[in-house]
Design a protein that fits this description.
Layout (H helix, E strand, L loop, with lengths): L55 E7 L6 H18 L4 E7 L4 H10 L4 E3 L7 H8 L6 E3 L11 E3 L4 H14 L4 E7 L2 H16 L3 E8 L3 H12 L6 E4 L3 H12 L8 E3 L9 H4 L7 E4 L5 H12 L7 H14 L20 E3 L2 E5 L5 E3 L2 E6 L2 E6 L8
Parallel strand pairs: 1-2, 1-3, 3-4, 4-5, 6-7, 6-8, 8-9
Antiparallel strand pairs: 10-14, 11-12, 12-13, 14-15
Helix pairs in contact: 1-10, 2-3, 4-5, 6-7
Length: 389
């Protein structure tokens, strides 16, 4: 459901600079007459990338082969676009394919002298990449949304479901909703959603009175919707899935007048989903996600350069480069990446709006609340313009 299995929805990728590898070897001929042994030839470096004292060397670890190649390429394209748009001359980004062996990709990146890793995309790959990067004192900025993977050396830049849920719950409480129910998928994403909902509702002074789980299929989510429809006593129902599956659940839930008066809620997975506006059953639903104010221009520029529309997640590749350039102001080429500079309480500004990192490595984003109304999706509570220090 999320990036460790690759959220099958909001993902994108693109191209950046690549590097080749080779090894050179020498040989010596020993003369027949006794003579001093020749000095051994120096062991060549595994990397052919020349030493660069003027630019920061940064590795982009994304899948460019395999099932997730499209997403990885989109992230790479967006990262490259950020370099072009900013005219940055002090950053050198090299792409390494994690499609087969993410640990080996990390090893090659370190051999090549990279001091920062942007990636990986999948949370399942974080452990193997971090195992190689941590001894070399190289931090990661992962595109995953797996909150459990965050550490002081692993920064998570993906959109977190817990923050989306907390923003929506707070908005709903402000509108008088006190009791909540939920449909959550089985698996890691569902576990995180249910935990976040329970915490957010409790902190907001409400209560969760019903919850149903399901397998990620139209039949299973429809059955779960019918089960929770039979229960009463809640004013809002969270459907924690993509727009398409959420729409199917809403149709089952609203059938025969079911759930009258219950407000439907969604998660960050609803961002950019076309099914929302085309499903009457979702009319009136609320959900929270990053702002799209800057995304339209980003998508236009991306299409002009690469001839195709970006995946929504491509902005993470772009913003990770903007973030790196900001930190690079106080980062000498070839030196250890100053991870503490990532903890600026004032945060940073990217395509997806303001964001900042806490000491745990988790991102905090400024989110807006949207409503599905009359065949359109509208902003009903704008994202904050920044953070209070």
């Amino acid at each position: 459901m999320f990036y460790n299995r690759l959220n099958r929805r909001n993902l994108l990728a693109a191209a950046a600079m690549t590097a080749t590898m080779a090894a050179l070897a020498g040989c010596a001929v020993v003369p027949k007459a006794p003579a001093p042994a020749p000095a051994p030839a120096p062991t060549p470096s595994e990397s052919e990338i020349p030493t660069d004292t003027e630019r920061h060397r940064v590795a982009l670890l994304v899948p460019t082969t395999g099932a997730n190649a499209g997403v990885g390429q989109s992230l790479a394209n967006a990262a490259n676009m950020a370099l072009l748009d900013t005219g940055a001359k002090n950053l050198r980004i090299t792409t390494y394919d994690t499609g087969t062996n993410p640990g080996e990709a990390a090893r090659r990146a370190i051999v090549d002298g990279n001091k920062l890793i942007l990636g990986p995309l999948l949370s399942d790959d974080i452990a193997s990449v971090a195992a190689v990067a941590k001894p070399a004192h190289i931090p990661l900025i992962s595109f995953s949304n797996d909150e459990k993977a965050a550490t002081k050396d692993v920064f998570i830049i993906g959109n977190l479901p817990g923050q989306s849920i907390a923003r929506t719950v707070a908005y709903a409480r402000g509108k008088g909703v006190t009791t909540f129910a939920a449909l959550v998928p089985r698996g890691d994403y569902g576990e995180r959603v249910s935990s976040s909902l329970l915490t957010s509702v409790r902190d907001a002074g409400g209560s969760v009175v019903a919850m149903e789980t399901y397998d990620r299929s139209a039949a299973s989510i429809g059955a779960a919707a019918n089960r929770i429809k039979a229960k009463t006593g809640y004013g809002a129902l969270l459907i924690a899935d993509s727009g398409s599956l959420s729409a199917k659940a809403a149709v089952s839930y609203r059938a025969a007048g079911g759930g009258a008066g219950v407000r439907l809620l969604g998660t960050e997975l609803w961002g950019g989903e076309r099914e929302l506006a085309t499903s009457p059953a979702l009319n009136g639903a609320w959900f929270s996600t990053v702002s799209d104010v800057r995304f339209a221009q980003f998508a236009k520029s991306y299409r002009a350069r690469f001839g195709t529309a970006p995946f929504r997640i491509a902005t993470l590749g772009y913003d990770s480069v903007l973030l790196t350039l900001r930190v690079a102001r106080d980062w000498a080429p070839g030196k250890v990446f100053p991870a503490t500079a990532m903890l600026d309480p004032g945060g940073f500004l990217g395509v997806d709006g303001p964001f900042r990192f806490g000491k745990t490595g988790l991102i905090e984003r400024a989110l807006e609340v949207r409503a599905v109304e009359g065949g359109a999706v509208k902003v009903v509570s704008a994202a904050p313009s920044g953070f209070a220090k």
